[in-house]
Amino acid sequence: MAVKLVESPEGHTGQGFFATSFDKAIGLARANSIWPLPFATSCCGIEFMATMGAHYDLARFGSERLSFSPRQADLLMVMGTIAKKMGPVLKQVYLQMAEPRWVLSVGACACSGGIFDTYSVLQGIDKVIPVDVYVPGCPPTPEAIIDGVMKIQELVKNESLRRRNSDEYTQLLASYGID
Predict the structure, then answer these.
(1) Per the database record, which ranges form the NADH:ubiquinone oxidoreductase-like 20kDa subunit domain (predicted)?
(2) Was 138 annotated as part of a binding site?
């Protein structure tokens, strides 16, 4: 997306206007200022810590400010094994986040239950909350986590401001029991 200043028809050099849509400008600003909320329960959380460290530096992608308050975050990063008893807590954290909000499922356990095919482990967080991007691996590498964040940024950048008010989005939330 190129934003350029265009000269007015009257030839005024000091005045101009932006030649882009409002959606694209807002999307670009949102994509480069994501505030993640890490919800880490096991080894994938350690990989996320490495991703935030100096060697990989997730801050380069506009995600430097981690938020440990759901009310101030817009990206929920679920990493690790989620027990079924933890499902309602995860859903409550998701509901406390303001719209627009996105979810990144990191690791095999969060994506599908991983190697823990037992009665006590949730077989994927998408049973409880909608997921935007999945990052596979056991545990995924920091490069894979960064790739997942970049996919979220691409989704945020191209999302219409009206998508969250659409019937399709409302039906998706209703299918998870979210008003």
Answers:
(1) 43-151
(2) yes
